[in-house]
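Intended use. Records such as the asparagine synthase (glutamine-hydrolyzing) entry shown here are meant for training and evaluating sequence-to-structure methods. They are not intended to support clinical decisions.
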Amino acid sequence: MCGIYTTNLSFNKQDIKQKLKSINFRGPDNIGMKEINGVTFGHLRLAILDLDSRSNQPYSFGKYHIVFNGEIYNFKDIQTELEEIGYEFETTSDTEVLIKGYAEWGENVLPRLNGMFAFAIYDELKNEIFCARDRLGVKPFFYYWKDGDFEICSQLRPLINKNLNVSKEAISIYLDCGYIPSPLTIFNDIYKLQPGHTLRIDLANKTKKIAKYWDLKDVQESDISYDEAKKQLHNLIIDAVKLRMQADVPLGSFLSGGIDSALVSAIAAKHSSQPLNTFTIAFENPEYDESKIAKQYADIIGSHHTETLCTPNEILAMLDDFKKAYDEPFADSSALPSLLLNKITKKYVTVALSGDGGDESFIGYWHLMLVDKFEKVSGIPFNIRRLIANFPFHKLMGTRPETIKGILNSKDENELIMKIFTSFDSLNLKANNSWIDRYYPGFKSWAKKPLQRAADLNIKLWLENDSNVKVDRASMAFSVESRSPFLDYRIIEFARTLPISYRFKDGITKKILRDILKEYIPEKVFTQPKKGFAIPLGEWIRKDLKEDILNKLNVEFLNSVPNLDITKFTKQLNLHLMNKHDYSFSIWKLYVLALWCEEFNISLK
């Protein structure tokens, strides 16, 4: 795992070195730079495979030069295939395999890759740069483009300059989502390469071409038996875990009270030659604490377990790290405990397995259940549902009033699904979901069943732009490589073909994963209530953070935020501080945006 940089702009060597140093945490083991024909390459290395300097980057092979961030987990199989063709290898790294694979197959190397990656390869003879990002967007890829001038980087910070303009569209979407989805960034002229896409830059003609090489397919539900599905899935997960255990540095696993991390950790422990290191966060508030369940898991699988108590003071102390690592507005508050978890983890290991991605494929998130609720009322005519939404009795249904109104006021499943991933109670004066149709058009047609369509949008939109961003920045902030077996594209593709009832049945989420986990951990242990990886943000906003929030979210700042419904937000803020309602997400979004403006000295006007 590393940081990459490429440009055709005429920065001097010191300028580029400073850009790389601003994200040095991504690769503290080596800074490499090379200039070829007016194109400059930079690389920050976090050494995981082949720790020798021979695998430092930029790495060259004949006319090809590469900067690469990530891991190709099946690189040994690809290397064997290349050796049979006649290639020889000087290192034991996946970087050499990737560049020689491209030399042999060109962009057709991509379907062979199983991994997380973002890379740029320069072909001297063609005078072009070929770039690609992994299928699920695990690794980041930012690029600046204007009139043929470009910069490519693993993070946004090195690309920021005083001539950039803030994107009003991006901020409007942020007000709904709490993140900025690809291909947008907070700035005009800087973009994210979307997952499963390539970027080809013709240096002579100063043109670029973006193409898709992978996407979710129109799902065809399999008629496979449940027992056979469980067997095949179990084998896939075992293989995905084992592939991700390859490392020349110490390896461990994150372990919460959930099913996904328990299954990953249990399999890893079984296939490890020594006791597995596992890591968890504990909270003082029992409403959020899963540490006791995680400790039970650790005892059962025989891991060497490290538990860290997360207090308000420790979390608030992470705000400086948060601002440095998350260099674009990002309002998932679980990023803070994630940072603390990685800070502790780094003391013991450099690679950590995680359970991220299981909820997307196996219908685990609570918000996906809203689609199930909608199906129960969808037979009621829309006009009648709209009338029902205005009555107060829905407050007794155990769900937030705004959410119940959102369900009843949705014309169809697709409209509800888009609301789930934007907002049921928007602060955006110009709120609409047209951007989803523009940037993520496929979700309406990939699957016939609404629940699968919601899960698909979860994979394409939320997973990339929230979950993967949180994990990548939090881990890299402390030079830890996080690997997620459930993000193996083979598992994603296989899970989508399984009947919904194999994954969600009678209100039970992730049914098939639970049945696999029974082979490692007693059911009575993992069926204890799941708390979620969250912090008591609402309480902290009323106490520990109150003064700073009121100071930063002043009238001048609120007036500077494009399309913000200031009246509505002010009402929400006051109701929250009086403990009459929980509007912590709305408040946190604006607070994070203010912190970002302060960090980069940028006005939104």
